Task: structure prediction
Amino acid sequence: MAANAGNKIRNAKVVLLGDVGAGKSSLVLRFVKGQFVEFQESTIGAAFFSQTLAVSDETVKFEIWDTAGQERYHSLAPMYYRGAAAAIVVYDISNQASFIRAKKWVQELQAQGNPNTVVALAGNKADLLETRQVQIEEAKTYAQENGLFFMETSAKTATNVNDIFYEIAKRLLQGQPAQNPQAGMVLSQRPNERVVSSASCCS
Amino acid sequence: MDPGPNPTPDDKGLAALSLRAPAALPPDFAAVPEIEDEEEEEDDDEGYFTAASRGGSSSTAAWKEEMEGLEEEEEEEDGPPSPSSSGYAGERGSSLASSAAGGAGIEEPDHHDVDAPQPHGPGAEDWARDKKHADEDDASASWRKRKKHFFILSNSGKPIYSRYGDEHKLAGFSATLQAIVSFVENSADHIKFVRAGKHQIVFLVKGPIYLVCISCTEESYEGLRGQLELMYGQMLLILTKSVNRCFEKNPKFDMAPLLGGTDAVFLSLIRAFSWNPATFLHAYTCLPLAQATRRAASAVLQDIADSGVLFALLMCEHKVISLVGAQKATLHPDDILLLANFILSSESFRTSESFSPICLPRYNPMAFLYAYVHFFDENTYLTLLTTRPDAFYDLKDSRARIQDVLLKANVLLEVQRSLHENALRVEDVPVELSSQSTSLPAQSSQGNSQSLSSEMAIGGPAGLWHFIYKSIYLDQYVSSEFASPIRNPKQQKRLYKAYQKFYASMHDKASGPHRTQFRRDEDYVLFCWITQDFELYAAFNPLADKTQAIKICNRVCQWIRDLENEIFVYGESTLAWQYHHCWGDI
Result:
């Protein structure tokens, strides 16, 4: 995943949203550190991570905001999703309520987020087949109707975890025009943090 | 002035408070015999059932909506039960609380409670292990036998937090507590505490939020009340006082979901009540460091503070390495305690850099600050507090600069070394005054041979086992390591309980404050000495000679003064404290 010398590096802010216990932190820790713990503690506020991913001849440097799912932090979410290049809305396939919560996040993103934001829907804990409450078809249909891309993931088994970030990277490099870094963005006001990216395509 | 070691005032004042009818309060509460040993073990040493147990249920209206005043969905009403029986209790409690105030704090010091064999030390991973026993409720025998309960509830009787058991299942019990409070308030009075047999039920009313402690640990009313104040402060740190507005809009507002995922924070605070002297001294403690090392850390923090950070704190576990505040901003020791407790008990802060809204209740209970938290290693962490919600990247840069300086100046290495080596040991108290400013072990016991039996030789001179010294101007304290006779955590916890009682009796508003107190019981000789500048609490072997003990206390004070540049933080902000030393009550 290391960037090669000649690569263009594109920074991309990604935010994870979703209900308490859906597995946002677990997904991030799996992706960033390759780790998984069975009893992940609640996130406080928001945790910041970064990780780079090479896609063809380009490198995407993800700046990942893992937000807390707790209700009291809900009001902070716009600070993180505004100006995000991508959002991953996470639910737990064994918890119907978390899917309902995920839909609310999607609505909020559609209403208040940046229309250019790539939104991914992640049905996490895909290893918990026996206690599944959210059918894959249901989620797929919902994702199609709302223009999201969808994957079932498992932070525990690492299934689709890198893939979902890879897919985001690809989409960012493909279709998305350069983000307007100042559009309603609160957290990235540091000018030098934003590398102006070329809109060139890959693969 | 000696408020006296005799146990009688307690009987006079408090006996009348006893509720003879067990039905008068939570049914059977007083009638249940205590589980002795294992119970107290559980008191502090339990498995993890922490965040997850309260996390899942929060699909109600969002915090934001609450704060912005959207309609809250209608809640089922919890009808308060008939206050007939509990009202009786409340009335008695309130009418007698004031007369008992003089007696509280000098309760007789018998210890049949057995303490936990859990190491108290700041091993953060242990704290989160307290079990909540979410399967219990007030009908469970095990729940009723627990030695110390803490409850937070709303003034409509809705449970917000319970140390043990599932809050949802405790709705009836919470309603009972609420009824007690409101019964007394209906007669234009305020309930302070109720005594029911061995149990003491302490109430603290904070606007729409009630905090209750039910305990049979024989701690003083003042001590328990202080603990409730800290519980409230911890809650404010997470939510701010503006949560009150939710109750103005909807008296039946269900606040419990807003505290989702914070069980570990409260449990670790409750544990701190039995090992961390900061919880009753209202002072913080520093990591001993060479002056130059601390200066290097302070200088770089000061630079950062000058560039728009409100407070910058570098801490190692619960000990302050350095702290600075922006101009005129001062940090209260209780806020330091609550902030450190919050950070250390939330595993999430250790996994990456975090940015989280927190409130410092003594600084401004109404407003959130934003905390950038970063752990440099297992136990050393930097907290930068700002009022700017968009400051993350700036603070991240600041952290990098601070980290550079700390590495270059070897501060982080020195911190690790100090953590293991620089503790104050009672064995090192200089016996000869001529040996001032050295910290060599005091092997010269011959000097005091008349008071040093072979047993006395264990520990420091004259049988000194432990001491705590609090500098009043600095709001800082230092405490020694525990000497071998109190090496085990059970004994340490017991000593802290004795100190807490001692503290309460020294600061008793009715009969005090007092200057000195000397008390001997079967466990120790305790000596306390309060002057304008400091408070000293010392524990000696129970056979220690009084004159010798007092002499040694003088030497301890001299020794502390000799070491003060290494064991206390002197900064610009601490200077500000000296001149604006005017902390009010909460």
Notes: Residues 1-129, 435-456, 573-586 of chain B have pLDDT under 50 and may be disordered. The interface with chain A takes residues 48, 50-52, 55-56, 58-60, 62-64, 67, 128, 238-239, 257-262, 264, 342, 346-349, 351-357, 371, 389-390, 392-394, 396-397 of chain B (CB under 8 Å).
